[in-house]
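From the pipeline queue, job 12 of 40. The input is one protein chain; the requested action is below.

Action: predict structure.
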Amino acid sequence: MKYRIALLFILQVGVLAAQDNKWQGKFEQLDQTLPTPNSYRSSSGAPGVNYWQQRADYVIAAELNDDNQSLSGTETITYYNNAPEELRYLWLQLDQNLMAPNSMTKQTQGFTVRDSIAAKFIAGPTNAYDFKGGYNIKSVKDAAGKDLPKVINYTMMRVDLPKPLKTGETFVFSVEWSYNINDRMMMGGRSGSEFFPEDGNYVYTIAQWFPRMCVFDDYEGWQNKQYLGAGEFALVFGNYRVRLTVPSDHIVGATGWIQNPKEVLTKEQIERFETARKTFDKQTWIVTEEEAKKKEKERSKKKSTWEFYAENVRDFAFASSRKFIWDAQAVKVGDKTPLAQSLYPKEGNPLWGKESTKAIKNTLEVYSSRTFDYPYPTAFSVHGASIGMEYPMICFNFGRPQKDGTYSDRVLDGMISVVVHEVGHNFFPMIVNNDERQTTWMDEGLNTFLEKETKRERYPTLDLVHGTPKGIVPFMKGDKNVMRPVMATSDNQGSSFGANGYTKPSAALTLLRETVMGPELFDKAFKEYAQRWAFKHPKPADFFRTMEDASAVDLDWFWRGWFYSTDNVDLTVDDVKWFKVKNTTVDPEKKNVKVKSGDLSASAKGTSNEKANDFSKGPQEFTVIKTPDNNYGDFLSRVDDKAIVDKLQGKNIYEVTLRNTGGLISPVIIEWTFKDGSKELERIPAEIWRTNETKVTKTFVKEKEVTNIVIDPNFETADVNTNDNVFPKKAVESKFDQLKKN
């Protein structure tokens, strides 16, 4: 009979808990959500024993026309089929077709006419600019020079093969093309030209400039999702040999290492370049500002060809201008000495001369310590207006002083931040090579996190809120009707793109490192992920699984909440009760006290069900009774009831009830302030919510009397409403208003 009673009791408790909890499965494992592990991608998050990826090598010759701002070229691609299946056709990306008059982006672009619109902003949507963009694909031929059948679908081109390309085989073909270079001031874009009317010169920052192979992988076959402008790129690793013909007075920076310096540089420039390669404590100017100013006035009609070679990279970009000042400095990273190089027009000085190369150095050092030693021979930072864009070994960055050379702290912070961020992209996604078009957060979010960490270590006086839990609160408080989860694809994020791609994942990783896992475990797991997937193509499941595999921390609740939902953190201090033990022990056999099985206590004074507003009424006393024999079951030994009472005597016992009103599971961080003015910070893992996701009650024992309780006092968890995080309630203003001011 007692077993039936016990079973009935358990069922009743379960029903009551379910009614109160309204369980939504926030601690449910992600097993059914993530793809099933296989021999290509293991259950630990590492590449599987049969992992494979394709490769594409390029030999490119291109010429930049400075008179009409156009680019033309030919490329030979050697494509390696390492897939365990044959291919009957290939897909190439034609990203410049984003600028074509009939592009899908232009056809689907929305615009609202208002009563007053600046000409610049109406020109694009109404096609008012006299610009014809997009590729002119002149030919696609096999190695024997025979035309290959092709079909162009907006930003994608299908090339049919003369016969199936079997596993382990290669196919060599060539593409000849040309296009007009867009003016970024008018047309926008990640790549293009900037015109300087005072001296009549251009700065070219050229990317997405040649037809590139799409990724073919074990996840979805060909990744040929159209380029609509928001989602970036999925690219294949390979080797590049590139010859760029430009006006002979131009300086060129590019992906890879220069192969023919004697053909394009003066003897003095070569000497300065070699000095820079051996100098670790300061910059060396290879082209000074005065020399660049002089070249601005000269218009060489001659041409020079710069040759670069890059090994095991996923892309190639370059910058070219006669306006460039050029400085460089060697960096020590492990047993490697990459060269940090900056190119910038005089309009970037004095800011760029002071900060750009230094920021490259700081980035390579900090990122390498958190991931792997930077493997490439160089890293360029190139200055351009209103841009931040990344490519292997080279990036284009904003941050321009006033004409008189002065700049604000905000400009300084923005410039350093963007250089760190874009140089940091060499690690994610240029080496740890995720699919940017599908999962922006895997590079932008991880990179924003490491950007913040680099600033924290090397620039502690700059803004350190961006990319933190505190910084993401305004977004998390936003309209859920238009908000998307982080895992939504790039082109479907809408107004959530910036936050979900960059700052929310960074805030999540900050919370994960500082509060959930701790720096030591997090850093080991994060480095494990970076090293496992360097020069490979990771997917979200690979990151999630590796972080758990390398740390022994169950994080499924974390990924589910922060990456798959639009919930926010909003914990509420629902009730606080203060108790003290009465200095007696009641024998239930001698006193008329009703005791529920399993209860610790019964109140001698009577416990009020009313919620207290403060501690002014003092503690409620309760009596600890002698443990009834039926609570011991079959055990013959007994606890020392009196010793337990003696240990609790005089202690302050606080029963705290918390509600999760935001839906996002969170660790609980409590700051206790005591009567003597001292404080204690107590951290409770998020698993406290595992059996009830909406309400928890926990008891704390303190030696000293508590005067104030604050949840998340240092804004670690991204709680969107701190006004209900304090007890007594009157402490809200004094506590959080002061913190917000700081």
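Job complete. The two ends are 63 Å apart (CA to CA).
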